Every structure is written in structure tokens, then in C-alpha cells.
Amino acid sequence: MAALQRAVVACERCERLRRHCALVAVEKRRAYRDETYWGRPVPGFGDPEARVLLVGLAPGAHGANRTGRMFTGDSSGDWLYEALHREGFASSPVSVSRDDGMRLTDVWIGAAGRCAPPDNKPLPEELAACREFLAGEIALLPRLRVVLVLGRIAHEAYLRACGRWEGRPPRERPAFAHGAEVALAGGPVLVSSFHPSRQNTQTGRLTRAMWHAVFARVRALVGAPPPPRSNPR
After folding, report:
1. Contact indicator for 132, 112 with CB cutoff of 8 Å
2. What are phi and psi of 214, to 5 degrees?
3. What domains are defined for the chain?
4. Strands across the sheet with 146-150, in order?
5. Model confidence over 102-136: pLDDT tens digits?
């Protein structure tokens, strides 16, 4: 997994994305003008013995692209880590930097894309170029029992990365819907949720109760947390 993370960080495949991330890292947001932005592809984060894989969309320009850790430093991350902590998956309800001591238990966080895209909209060819990183994480999580996808793009990215539905017509593929749950033959349970973006949370499309219910269901599917153990970041 460590080798895969290094490969993610070193990736230079998508010129548009690399240019955008580098520009954001130089221009910065006023609130973070004194910080050094990460500005590179963002690797996965979590417990390499995880039974839960969480798949997001892509790093936020001033969130993970700034901090270098998935879902860290923006409002989506605030929603995510609060819910993970509530169900015993995270050591803290707040994630602010790579050096804040956060530990995840039983969860690995990946994404459809590893670079912050302009307007939060990665191109199909950029998602295709990133697919092998998600596929690699899936292969390196042998205890996987639940996959939680956040948003339709993450849902599609997982279906493509796991290689089960290539070439099949849409009617044969698991459909995306908030709270949908599909037990995959010979594989994990696929759980879908709306992404905790401001577009969803500020409009009420995704409420805190809806969000908490998804994570409570994930916890029920994997059972009680395992005994405490050493967990590299």
C-alpha cells in the first residue's frame, strides 16, 4: 500500500489537472495564504487492514489539495470525519492536517480522482487515468466487506475499478441512489450515499440525519470495532 501511495503522489499523467493544482497552490485562498499547499496528487489514507472502503470524488482545491490528506481541511471533511468518529472509525471528529494525529480504524479512504479538478469536474479520460489507483487499493484490502461510495461519479468509478461490470448494459449494473445497498456476489456490500458537498448539505438534499443513518448502517454491516492496534497513517 505504501508503494501505491508513492505512485499516486508521483503521478503526472493529466496535464490539465497538474497545471490546475499547481496554480491553486500558488494563488491560494486568502484564509490560507501563509500555508504551503500540498499541490500534488493525494494518496489514499486509513487502515490497511480495513473492512470498509470509502470512495470519494476527488480532492478539494483548498481542502485535500492544500493539506495532502483525503477529505481534510474543508466542509466535506468536517461532515465525513464527524460521522466516522461517531461510529468508532476515526480517532477524532475533526481532520485539519496530515500531522494532526488522526487515526482511522477499519476504514480506508480513496477516491475516483486524485487531483483537484477545475470546478470539481474531472474529465472522463482523467478518471480513466486514475482508475488503476483505486483498483490497486481494492486489491490490497483483502478483508474488505463494505464499499461506501459518495456520489454518482464515485459509484461509477468503483464499478469500473473492480472490473465486474465492464461491457454490461446499464440495467445489469447496481444503480446509484442515496441509501441504496447491494450485496455483490462473491464480494463486499456496496452502499451508496450523496456526497457531503456544500451543494448537497446546504440545500438540504443531504441532511445530517440521512448522513448519520448511512454510517450507522455501515457499522452494522461490519460489526463492532476490532481491538485497538497499531495503525499507520
Report:
1. no
2. -60, -45
3. 2-222 (3.40.470.10)
4. 45-46, 107-111, 52-56, 146-150, 189-193, 181-183
5. 999 999 999 999 999 999 999 999 999 999 999 99
